[in-house]
Each structure stands twice: as C-alpha cells, then as structure tokens.
Amino acid sequence: MTSTIPPTERARARISERTFRKDRWWIGPLFTTLGLAAFVAYATARVFQQDHYWVEEYHYLTPFYSPCLSAGCAPGSAAFGSTPWEFPWFIPYAAISLPILLLFRVTCYYYRKAYYRSIWQAPTACAVQEPHDRYTGETRPLMLGQNLHRYFFYGAAIIAVINAYDATIALFHGADGGFGVGVGNLILWGNVLLLACYTFGCHSCRHVMGGRLANFSSHPVRYWLWTKVSWLNARHMLFAWITLGTLAVTDLYVALVASGVITDLRIFN
After folding, report:
1. CB atoms inside a 10 Å sphere around CB 64
2. Burial class (CB in 10 A: 0-12, 13-18, 19+), 67
3. How many CB atoms lie within 10 A of CB 235?
4. Could you state, in order of their start, the residue ranges of all structural domains in the chain?
5. Residue pLDDT, tens place only, 112-169
6. ω into residue 63 within 30 of 0, thus cis?
7. 106 to 103, 146, 148: CA distances (angstroms)
8. Is the Cβ–Cβ distance between 65 and 74 less than 8 Å?
9. Cα–Cα distance between 85 and 103 in angstroms, integer?
10. pTM value?
C-alpha cells in the first residue's frame, strides 16, 4: 500500500547503533567545520576592524573592503565614490558587496553539502545515525532562500569584475607613480584569478552558458563556453576551499603592509 504520509513528514530511517563504520568517518566533517569556522572568525574580525585595509603608496585594497563606500574610507580607497556620512561600527565599509558574497557562498551547491553534513549533520556521513527525527529538505521558509543562488551569482560576477579593477589600478601605482609590480600585485591578481575560477565555475554560470538549449550544434560559442565552465565546475569544491585561503592571505598581506609590519617587496619599479 502506498503511504499517505507526505515525504517531508515521514520518520527518518533508524539505526540501532551510532554507526557500524570502522573508519574515521568524523575527520572530514570535523575539518570542514574547523575550516569554515576559522575563516568566518578571521573575516568577521577584519571586516569590523575598519583599519589596515588600504596601502595608499601602491593602491592596495583588500577584497574585504572593496568597494569601500563609507565616508570614513581612507582617501583614495573609495574608487566608486562614497556616502556623505560615515558608517557606524556595525556596518562594514563594503556594505553592498560583502552580503552578496556571503549569500553567494552560503547558497552555493558545494557549501550547502559541506555545512549540511558537517554542522547540521544531515547526514554527517553515510551509514551514520542522524540527530534529526524528520527530513524536511529545503521546504522550510528560510531554506527556500537557497533557490536565490542564481541571482547572487550575478552579483558575485559583478564584484569579481570590481576586484579585477582594483588589481589593475594597483599596477599603475608603482614607487614613482607609474607602472610597477610588487609582491602585493601578484597576490592581488592571484586572488582575482582564483576567485574567477570559483565564481564562474558555479552551477548557475554553467546553466547560463548551456541551459535551455535543445542542441549545441547551432550554438558553437555557447557550447565552447559551457565546456570551459564545466571544467571549472568539476573542480568547484577545490576552488571553494582555495579561495577561502587566498582571500585570507590577500587580506593579511595588505593588513601587514598597511600597518607597517612588513614592506612590500618590489619586483619592478
């Protein structure tokens, strides 16, 4: 007889033991939780520090503060203009870009898998007992917001262009005001390129390139783009973790130079 209980209301499968697995299944979820927590803690502290984010001499701007929008932004750092008033301490200087990037990552298909398993334990691992009585999927009001990922992608793509602009402008602010390259420039551009790999390897971008096509033969350009995005998409998890690292490294480098702890090593000019 077919069950009349809605799928979202059916009881979860029961396992009498916590797990019958003999391997160290908990290592993956543990490292995922620690990695995400470390990045969130560092990024939160830096975003609200509102200091050491801009190196005027070489035009280095950390991605955590781009675009800088507050009237309190350091002179020259607000490349796209600023508001006529200073933001209070609880509003980040990059008040538009940071929420978009946060929501883009939170709703990302890979990150959903990561924190669903490691933090929400739904499920923690295959053949491991869950702490939840019922499975509701993404049917709850808050979870329905995950479907907005495709729109956050468009915002993230625009911000990726802004980051590329920041990195480009920095190349024309060498020691004598002309073209120059320093370690900071290499770090900024490395971060931009890797962020582009993550952003444009997104499932939503792949759909934009090749979705809703009856065939590829009559759309050779879109097919070519789809194959390139598909290559990135197959490595989406890799770029998701690498870019968390490059964001932190880029921000830390700019902060150290801006605070005078280290000096930017110039390669050319």
Report:
1. 24
2. buried
3. 13
4. 24-268
5. 999 988 988 888 888 787 777 777 777 777 778 888 999 999 999 999 999 999 999 9
6. no
7. 5, 8, 11
8. no
9. 26
10. 0.87
